[in-house]
Amino acid sequence: MKKLPEELVGPFVGGMYDHSLARLYLKREGGTSQVVDDVYPSLFIPTPQFNNFDMQSFPEVFQGVPHYQEEGRYIRVYMKPRTTRSKIDEILHMSNADGVFPREADVSALRRWFSDTGSLVSNKTKALFFDLETKPEVIGFDEEAKKHHRIISFSAQDLNNNRWFDYNHTNDLQGEERLIKSFLKIAEAYDTLLAWNGNDYDFYVIKWRCKKLKLEIEWRQWNLLDYMLTVKKCLGTISDPKFKRSYALDNIGQNVLGIRKLHVNCPMGQLDRLIEQDRVSELEEYNVRDTEIMIKLEEKREFLQLHLAVCSICRMFPGPGSLFPNALADGLMLRLAIQQNRHFRTRYLYQEDENENKYSGAYVMDPIIGFHEKVQVVDFSSLYPSIIISWNMSPDTKLWNNQSYPIDIMHNCATATATGVKFRTDREGMLPMALRKLLEQRKIYSKKQMEANVGTEEWKRFGHESTALKVVANSMYGLLGSQFSRYYDREIAESVTLTGQHLIKNCIHYSEGLGYKVIGGDTDSIFVIASIEKAATLIDEINKTLVPQICNESGCRQTAIRMDSDKAYHYLLIQAKKKYAGKLSLHKGRLAPDDMEPDVKGLEFQRSDQIRYAQRMQMHFLHFLLRPDADPVTVQTELRKWADEFLDKEINVDDIVITQAVKKHPDNYASITPAVRVAKQMIEDGKEFFQGIKVPYIVTKTNRHGIVTCIHADEYTGNFDRMYYWKQKILPPVSRLIEARFQNENLDELMSMMQDPGQFTFDYQDNDMRVRKPKAPKPKSRKRKVRISRTYLDIHEEHKVKTIKTLAQFIKQGKKGSRRIFLRIKLNSGDTVVISTEHYVDDACLKTIMNHLPFVGIEPRPI
User: Fold this and answer.
1) The whole model's pTM is what?
2) Are 219 and 207 in contact (CB under 8 A)?
3) Domains assigned to the chain
């Protein structure tokens, strides 16, 4: 292949394409630029089909540009820079009818140039984080309303701790124009601009305000990157409840960094009053805190650095497009196609598949519910990528049923056992090739990181490169199942998942045949009761015997599939499919420290819509339940303490906030959930709202029909429905774990608290029960119970303990009575509490209670 001129190698930090001049403007690290002329989009026609390709019918696309040139097995045909996607679809429809199938016609000129040349994209950038404060002149946060949000101030900061703040001194349009120019002057020195929720707000608002003020700005000179979406993308495969609860900047600051957005004594949406009232210092502190949170988050977690490493691998500048896997994949796959003289199909702008996402997914075995010891997790390393490589699964190697192939190809193909789809093995497919290169490169960077000194810049860089390669490799399978991908093929996607099922089911059967007890299996792993040594023996047997046998029977030319184990548990508690928690003994191939937090998968602890109080409580009880000596009495006693605390004590608002995503405009929901109701109120009150926002709310009361009344968390005044929270949000997650741990034990106290958290249950021994039959054996001691319905939790706290203890003591003495009664206790406040003894007492018992408890009156009522 022709060597690339040195000036075009890069690496480049940014670039934009001029459609009118077919010119590319590129920017290097350090600010120098490079101009490339005659850059045209193009499509590829297989040479045998070229004579049937009708360019004459589309003069607006092909006339006036270099017509075509032969490149190996394809003819490259150039198009005009302003060719629209709808026009490309027209060409596709007409050409397909003539038996011509143009390849890669939808690829942009910028993407085409990087793929053709192999020029590099830098993994560095000069980044400026910023935040805008606005004055909504039209209430609302829909697209039309946001055009009328006047900018009153901005704060900006870079990773070298340079900071800026400016505001609209005159609070009018002229002042806004000066303010925007001030920001753009600062931005000139940077390659990438970042804002939290920037795509939906900051970038959108500043662009429209520039239009209103008739400021001609070429926004393509910067990479505009939404930092919130960048964080979400990097966390796509990470279960971290600190982030997933809410991506509001305040939540991220509080839970990840320990700092919050500042409160300002001024109605939101009216921050311009701070300027009018000469309180600019308050506005500055409030505005600056937002950029400070973003900077500190980047310094701690380096999400931008990871994303830049991914962009560099895929030859794509950071920006809105770089947040989508399909766009990133093009950067990698199209370059590889050029090197191999192959090309992929053109993706239609509008394509539909009635069977989209209707293929089978991963296999999950019905687990053995309960508590287990010495559990080894045996899993396949990179299962789906390994399957794709072993079976050579790729759109360009798939054998189509309606086509004929030479005998040698038919005899040398791999067959996906579950689907019967065949893949040629005489040459490596593009997708397996890409995955192989990515995984090989990752091993190199992982090794370099291990050799580098921990914490150094070199160590961090190799870590970013290794993680980025993993992110890209793991996204490859998704391309096969996404309709929006040019690599989409439902049959191949299903072949991958069903082959995974076939492998994991065979591993379970094989392991059980060798005498191992398998208690669970999920996607790419099985859970086995065994020692570390026995697990190693099992892994060796599977890798040397079972996997090669399956691959050979399927016709695979190579076996990239391998089982390994880097995780094991001292104790594991399984609640249900994909829901378990355990105390680790082995973590990432190393011994886990004794004080390591439990490893949690699928439980409410990790769910973003679960309240913090319930999460904290669930983790607290996991420490109890993951002990081999745990007993139900101790656990239920501890549960009663938590019930007392929640029902009696003051609760922090952050512990009871419920967050739920509202993914559409509230008016578009047929069913009105609490979050949707609160979102409607947010819009009416002029609070920020965007589709996908996670709405925080508090349930204040529930009527007899179960319909809840809720308010936005910011409006909380201290009143909330404790009974709703306990029964619906707090107790269920813990109770399911307790029931899984003590399946055959007496859990009366737990059952009691599930029905009424204010109900106490006391046991006492009835050793004096007599029977009339003279020769009958003396019965064993029976446990009796008194349940005290505690409806006065917030009243007479000083009497509560004394009352309950004294009643429990005296009721024992009333076992010989002739009537079963309620005790109706009248408190000094006038409130009445009804206590059911649930057995017979006599008058002496009543008299004794009345003598010893002068602050209550007791009125017997026969049942």
Assistant:
1) 0.79
2) yes
3) 127-313 (3.30.420.10), 370-599 (3.90.1600.10), 760-862 (no CATH)
